[in-house]
């Protein structure tokens, strides 16, 4: 399956060029190996309105998937989940729960993740952690879920239940 992907990195320091973006590179490497096409890649500061406007603009461009990275913790400037929730039409809590489930055995600090996932129009949006290590641990487990979700979001009428 070819997926049209947007990668949105939320980082005050990264947006100013004060920190190298390693999480976006990790996402791009993994998804490129799956044959997915990165259409948009941007680093912006942790600002609710900027995040919301970027997500809406990218959804309107017809992306299948937007993966955000960063801003999902409890630091005062971490606002990615709040901004994402404001643009989602349907939240999919199971994806966020599954990401935390994968991470718990590696680090109990996964309990601090506030990441969300959901749908706006025909685009799946998932908040990933800001750590390249965490992305490499989590993202490969999501491939099948993401592809199935995109098929359903686009209106695939086939049955989901196993025989």
Give a brief description.
The protein has 163 residues and is an alpha/beta fold. The protein contains six helices and six strands, in the order βααβαβαβαββα. Helix 2 (23-33) packs across helix 6 (132-153), helix 3 packs across helix 4 (80-87) and helix 5 (93-103) packs antiparallel against helix 6 (132-153).
Keywords:
163 residues; alpha/beta; Molybdenum Cofactor Biosythetic Enzyme, Chain A; six-stranded mixed beta sheet; 6 strands; 42% helix
**Any idea what the shape is?**
globular
SSE pattern, N- to C-terminal: EHHEHEHEHEEH
Provide the residue-averaged pLDDT: 96
Total discrete domains:
1
Which fold name fills CATH's third level, the topology? Molybdenum Cofactor Biosythetic Enzyme, Chain A
Helix count, DSSP H or I runs of 4 or more residues = 6
First CA to last CA: what distance?
Answer: 23 Å
Helical content band: 40-55%
User: Biggest sheet, strands in spatial order?
Assistant: 2-1-3-6-5-4
What is the CATH C-level name? Alpha Beta
Strand content: 15-25%
Radius of gyration: 15 Å
Q: Can you characterise this structure?
A:
42% of the residues lie in helices and 20% in strands. The chain has 163 residues and is α/β, with parallel strands linked by helices. It has a single domain (4-153), classed as 3-Layer(aba) Sandwich (Molybdenum Cofactor Biosythetic Enzyme, Chain A). It has a six-stranded mixed β-sheet, sandwiched between helices. Strand 5 and strand 6 form a beta hairpin. Helix 2 packs across helix 6 (132-153), helix 3 packs across helix 4 and helix 5 (93-103) runs antiparallel to helix 6 (132-153). The chain is globular and about 45 Å long. It starts with a strand and ends in a 10-residue tail after the last helix. The relative contact order is 0.19. The model has no long low-confidence stretch (mean pLDDT 96).
């Amino acid at each position: 399956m070819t997926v049209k992907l947007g990668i949105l990195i939320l980082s005050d320091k990264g947006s100013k060029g004060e920190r190298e973006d390693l999480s976006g590179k990790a996402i791009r490497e993994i998804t490129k190996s799956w044959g997915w096409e990165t259409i948009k890649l941007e680093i912006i500061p942790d600002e609710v309105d900027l995040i919301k406007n970027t997500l809406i603009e990218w959804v309107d461009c017809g992306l299948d998937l937007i993966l955000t990275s960063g801003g999902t913790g409890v630091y005062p400037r971490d606002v990615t989940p709040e901004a994402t929730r404001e643009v989602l039409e349907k939240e999919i809590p199971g994806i966020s729960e599954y990401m935390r489930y994968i991470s718990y055995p590696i680090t109990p600090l996964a309990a601090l993740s506030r990441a969300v996932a959901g749908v706006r129009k025909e685009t799946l949006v998932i908040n990933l952690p800001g750590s390249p290590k965490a992305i490499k641990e989590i993202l490969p487990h999501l491939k099948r879920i993401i592809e199935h979700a995109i098929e359903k979001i686009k209106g695939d009428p086939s049955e989901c239940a196993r025989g």
